[in-house]
């Protein structure tokens, strides 16, 4: 299309931007027609008039000109001219147009977007005719250091999740107070609150809390709110469940680490190496106790779909934490050249924990790889298209790019994916370490990356049909896992408390 533009309008003022997220220019490096070029207004008005013709209008138009892309110039006059021209293309079609823009660019590239650059871009549009989404306000609000977006209205948004990852996470204190702090901010231009997750089918309690706050005039009492949440969610009162949710809300769902980004970095869902993160923002003892309380209540609540989901989810979270512990055991054993310990930790992880996790996830409709793939294929008009959609659906949750450009960004913990993707990678990692010890060789990460890439790419093209219906009894599987792994979890906690040779860093992340 750009070459056509050059051919038809050889004097058009077109600039090519840089690459995005490790993708080369075959997949990125967008061309941008300078909004000050008269052609920009012409094309913009033609496009928007067709949009209005087809869909009607509510007078609000979303445009994100430089989202995660650096503008060609930081000159304030240039930036004001850019936003002025973009807005002019809107008002040429709709005199009542309001520009809706993500404020993510200011957060993601603070080295470029200094106060003068931000103000210049925002003030190219008349005050009140632009609404800015403060996209990640629960962790890094932009309104606080831009004088409430220099007078432009904004919406306080909870982003919460990157990549649609599974994994418990929340910042309930920040969520509970943030919108009201924004409302009471000096000269506040707040006009609403919103939800902006990259994926929403996880951590339902966080989205229920955030949605309810839209109707509140002040923060809720979190302990009371989550107690009532347990009753609403399961349709009945149970002391164990009330206690479990209070524990979760005060720990894993209350991250207070400044600027923390919820992007599941568990070794479970990351390509194996000796550089993986194992840190937690909460005490795992609270998670394990909540797990025990869920198991106590399970016989009385297994008929409730919401409880079934939560039992799978809390057990999944426990096994995710234990994966990090076994990973640390593997790293310690290799570093200390202890073959027996390496075989034990690696064997438990690859041949028991991962298979059990896969069986658990496969027992619930909400954690199936097959459902994701079936939905992608269902949009196809023919078999060739179905294969393309299947490949892209697999690629997005694994390599995301032909060569893993943003590897594991959209990682998921689903039945089928654990068995055929994550477990296979970890199996190769343990096997490689065993061979290194056996032959007295150092571990070579580059060589391993080349080998494991074949497993990752192989999953994308394996052609396997994955179940779209749950298999197995969730309670039986969860109870079996509890009997095996709860004592291990308690033992590791005890080692941490006593400061035994298994130090806190190796007993638990």
Key phrases:
7 strands, 5-stranded parallel beta sheet, 509 residues, disordered C terminus, 6% strand, mainly alpha, single chain, two-stranded antiparallel ribbon
Describe, in plain words, how this protein is organized in 3D.
Residues 7-217 form the Alpha-N-acetylglucosaminidase tim-barrel domain. Residues 225-484 form the Alpha-N-acetylglucosaminidase C-terminal domain. The chain has 509 residues and is mainly α. 53% of the residues lie in helices and 6% in strands. It is built from 19 helices and seven strands. Strands 3-4-5-6-7 form a five-stranded parallel beta sheet. The protein has a two-stranded antiparallel sheet with strand order 1-2. Helix 11 packs antiparallel against helix 12 (305-335), helix 12 packs across helix 18 (474-498) and helix 13 (339-362) runs antiparallel to helix 16.
Give the integer mean of the pLDDT values. Answer: 94
Q: Categorize the overall geometry.
A: globular
Please give the number of β-strands: 7
- SS-based structural class? mainly alpha
Strand percent estimate: 5-15%
How is the largest sheet built, in terms of strand order?
A: 3-4-5-6-7
User: What is the rounded Rg?
Assistant: 26 Å
Cα distance, first to last residue? 50 Å
Low-confidence parts:
500-509
Q: Which range best describes the helical content: under 10%, 10-25%, 25-40%, 40-55%, 55-70% or over 70%?
A: 40-55%
Question: What's the order of the H and E elements?
Answer: HEEHEHEHHEHEHEHHHHHHHHHHHH
Q: Specify the biggest β-sheet.
A: 5 strands, parallel
Number of helices: 19
């Amino acid at each position: 299309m750009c070459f056509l533009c050059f051919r038809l309008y050889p004097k058009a003022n077109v600039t090519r931007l840089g690459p995005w997220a490790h993708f080369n220019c075959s997949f990125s490096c967008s061309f941008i027609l300078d909004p000050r070029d008269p052609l920009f207004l012409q094309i913009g008005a033609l496009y928007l008039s067709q949009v209005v013709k087809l869909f009607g209008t509510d007078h609000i138009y979303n445009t994100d000109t430089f989202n995660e892309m650096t503008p060609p110039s930081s000159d304030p006059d240039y930036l004001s001219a850019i936003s002025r021209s973009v807005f002019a293309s809107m008002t040429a079609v709709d005199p009542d147009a309001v520009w809706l823009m993500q404020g993510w660019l200011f957060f993601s590239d603070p080295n470029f977007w200094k106060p003068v650059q931000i103000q210049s871009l925002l003030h190219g549009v008349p005050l009140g005719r632009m609404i800015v989404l403060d996209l990640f306000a629960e962790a890094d609000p932009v309104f606080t250091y831009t004088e409430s977006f220099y007078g432009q209205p904004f919406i306080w948004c909870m982003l919460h999740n990157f990549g649609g990852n599974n994994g418990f996470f929340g910042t309930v204190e920040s969520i509970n107070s943030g919108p009201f702090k924004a409302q009471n901010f000096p000269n506040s231009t707040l006009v609403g609150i919103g939800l902006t997750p990259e994926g929403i089918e996880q951590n339902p309690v966080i989205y229920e809390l955030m949605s309810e706050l839209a109707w509140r005039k002040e923060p809720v009492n979190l302990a009371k709110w989550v107690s009532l949440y347990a009753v609403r969610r399961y349709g009945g009162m149970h002391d164990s469940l009330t206690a479990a949710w209070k524990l979760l809300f005060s720990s894993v769902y209350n991250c207070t680490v400044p600027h923390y980004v919820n992007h599941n970095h568990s070794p479970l869902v990351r390509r194996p190496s000796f550089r993986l993160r194992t840190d937690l923002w909460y005490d795992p003892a609270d998670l394990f106790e909540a797990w025990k309380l869920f198991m106590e209540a399970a016989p009385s609540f297994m008929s409730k779909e919401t409880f079934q989901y939560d039992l799978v989810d809390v057990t999944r979270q426990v096994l995710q934490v234990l994966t990090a512990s076994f990973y640390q055991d593997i790293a310690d054993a290799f570093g200390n050249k202890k073959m027996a310990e390496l075989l034990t930790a690696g064997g438990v992880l690859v041949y028991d924990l991962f298979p059990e996790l896969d069986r658990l996830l496969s027992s619930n409709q909400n954690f199936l790889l097959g459902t994701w793939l079936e939905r992608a294929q269902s949009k196809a008009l023919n078999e060739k298209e179905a294969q393309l959609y299947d490949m892209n659906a697999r690629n997005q949750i694994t390599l995301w790019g032909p060569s893993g450009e943003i590897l594991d960004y959209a990682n998921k913990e689903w039945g089928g994916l654990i068995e055929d993707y994550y477990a296979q990678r970890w199996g190769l990692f343990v096997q490689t370490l065993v061979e290194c010890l056996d032959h007295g060789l150092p571990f070579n990460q580059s060589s391993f990356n080349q080998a494991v890439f074949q497993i990752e790419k192989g999953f994308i093209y394996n052609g396997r049909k994955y179940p779209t219906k749950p298999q197995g009894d969730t309670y039986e599987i969860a109870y079996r896992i509890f009997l095996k792994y709860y004592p291990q979890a308690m033992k590791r906690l005890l080692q941490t408390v006593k400061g035994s040779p298994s130090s806190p860093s190796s007993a638990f992340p």
